[in-house]
Amino acid sequence: MMQSGPREIVTPFRPIPLDVPEGMKPNEFFNSTENLNDLMHNNGLLMNDENLLLYRKALGHSNEFDTSIIYNTSQCILNPLGRPVRRTQVPDNVKHVWNRMNQIIIDYMLELYPDPDEALILAGEASLDATWPLTSPGVPSIRMLHNHFIVFPMDELRNAKLADAKNPNLTDGGQHSLFEEYMHDVYREFICKALHLEVLRPVSDDAARFGLTGYPQGLPSWEIPGGSATLEDVRFWYEYDLVLKGFIDFYRTFFSQVSTRNAPMPSDVYFPEQVESVLLFNNDFLKTAKKVRDRCITDAKYANAIRWQPAFKQLIYRNDEGKLIVTISQNSIGNAITELLGVVVNRVADADAYEKQEPRLIERLLEVRRRLVEADLGDGIATDYWPEE
């Protein structure tokens, strides 16, 4: 039987011919507003009036299928700290279009790869705001929400080497244990009482786990009954946001207690009754906050690594049985959304290897673009690599 454990795959990419300004880290520049011109003109696939930009990932996770949508507010909201960085901050009319785009792209992925034994399929997003220390290299300056749609061939994952299970990206920098090891019961109780779900069904850790890697580990997870057809139900997307709102309330409440002993309830929480009754009167919750607060006072490195504002990864993926699962986790410093499923991507500059895979990748990206245009979700963008339509 094949050993279960996180996998590290190698993904070739074509080096981006951009001059990074002196004094900037490459990843800082790639997250800059200036770089968006390259993103659109060299990698843009589709744009719509809601400022949602579909693009090819130039530094992708997978060359099988890999695309993203970014809520490109760089030209209409010049203050980086004023831009939406999570779905709960997106205007309703934009969110409506975004959800439809998500549904069509996920449906295409499932149609193209119907067998879970053939491909790992995932779609989701991570917080993009500067919630980690501002002095850390690579803190995003662009602060704009984007999501990912990725397919990994299972044969590639099976043949990949085992990743280091102690990689801080895979362990959420040690902070995931705060929620699951010390506050597992109160976390689950709060989520259960706060969220009134009609579509999503809670599932066990074993049912959620991706067998090859053994991930995700111990996260609250929900099945999407009915699979891809349910993604056409607007109620599903409402509940997908409820999961995020519950997570944000838990996160903000906990770290407010870490920051300030006996802090009042954070302002503008989504579920104030449950925050008060379940969290602020729970001894395990408050004892854990004290442990973290005490360590922050004496351990400067530990304190500097904490994201004091909600930092999350939330995704939809297909499990071994072919069921669609929703899960959510804290986001550690620097980790990618793929690592929530135990997939570490080692990007290697290799233009020749990338160009061998590029035609098939672009063919699939253009087909999903065609479906979005057909559904009146935007207009095609022409680049040196593909026409407008």
Protein architecture, described:
- Helices cover 37% and strands 18% of the residues.
- The chain is of the alpha+beta class.
- It has one domain (7-380).
- The strands form two sheets. Strands 8-9-11-10-5-6-4-3-2-13 form a ten-stranded antiparallel beta sheet. A three-stranded mixed beta sheet has the order 7-1-12.
- Strand 2 (44-47) and strand 3 form a beta hairpin.
- Helix 6 (184-194) crosses helix 8 (234-259).
Features:
13 strands; alpha+beta; globular; single chain; three-stranded mixed β-sheet; 18% strand; 37% helix; 389 residues; ten-stranded antiparallel β-sheet
In short:
The chain has 389 residues and is α+β, with helices and mostly antiparallel strands. The protein contains twelve helices and 13 strands.
Instruction: Work out the count of structural domains.
Output: 1
Widest β-sheet, arrangement of strands: 8-9-11-10-5-6-4-3-2-13
Main β-sheet description: 10 strands, antiparallel
Low-confidence stretches: none
Mean pLDDT: 88
Spatial gap, N to C terminus: 47 Å
Series of H and E elements = EHHEEEHEEHEHHEHEHHHHEEEHE
**Global structural class:** alpha+beta
The number of E-state strands comes to 13
Q: What percentage of residues falls in helices of 4 or more residues? A: 25-40%
Shape: globular
